[in-house]
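About this split. The held-out portion is used to measure sequence recovery: a designer receives only the structure tokens and must propose an amino acid at every position. Recovery is the fraction of positions where the proposal matches the reference. Here is one held-out target exactly as it appears in the evaluation file.
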């Protein structure tokens, strides 16, 4: 398949069928298609999600994100961070389950171990709270992949508990306790107890017993 044909096949979900052939062709032509996929992200950034929010069945940015994650394309990292740093609910409305299910691994895959973009998303009070959660979980993914050390991530989580996050409830606090728990955080138990005591954790999501 030609690059233009691949992109056309990935643009909309009109047929109701998974575009396996187009995706396999994209993977086979990784070097040739990567600049085009980066262009898709740049356009998504520039139109501030307008096409995703207004055009039913527009899928190209979804497939683009997954392909560039599979390619571990670090040039995608700042673009993806810029897109998901947009404030408000628009990002979640546009990307839906990608944010809650897969964004953490996408971010980890394109980061190349650079945590600056993840920190930017995590510490942005106006960023969508589920995006912030995904960025937190991406750090744990990078620990699991031996890209980051547990000690460095625990140190950063300590900073978030003590000064890095705004001291009011958001899902980012629930996510912080959750991802910290994934690293068996004996060192941070006092900090965790303090945020429970401050009542900025939704105990329906994660409680002390957990």
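Reference sequence for scoring:
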């Amino acid at each position: 398949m030609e690059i233009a044909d691949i992109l056309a096949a990935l643009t909309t979900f009109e047929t109701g069928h998974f575009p396996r052939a187009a995706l396999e062709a994209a993977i086979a032509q990784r070097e040739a298609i990567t600049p085009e996929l980066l262009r898709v992200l740049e356009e998504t950034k520039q139109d501030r999600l307008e096409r995703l929010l207004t055009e039913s069945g527009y899928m190209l940015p979804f497939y683009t994100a997954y392909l560039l994650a599979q390619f571990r394309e670090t040039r995608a990292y700042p673009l993806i961070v810029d897109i998901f740093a947009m404030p408000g609910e628009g990002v979640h409305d546009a990307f839906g389950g990608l944010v809650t299910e897969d964004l953490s691994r996408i971010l980890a895959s394109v980061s190349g171990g650079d945590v600056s973009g993840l920190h930017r998303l995590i510490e942005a009070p106006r960023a969508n709270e589920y995006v912030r959660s995904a960025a937190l979980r991406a750090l744990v993914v990078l620990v699991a992949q031996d890209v980051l050390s547990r000690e460095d991530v625990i140190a950063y989580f300590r900073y978030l508990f003590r000064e890095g996050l705004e001291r009011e409830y958001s899902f980012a606090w629930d996510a912080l306790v959750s991802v910290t728990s994934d690293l068996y955080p004996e060192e941070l138990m006092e900090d965790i107890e303090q945020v429970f005591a401050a009542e900025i954790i939704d105990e329906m999501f994660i409680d002390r017993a957990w």
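Annotator remark: The CA atoms of residues 170 and 183 lie 21 Å apart.
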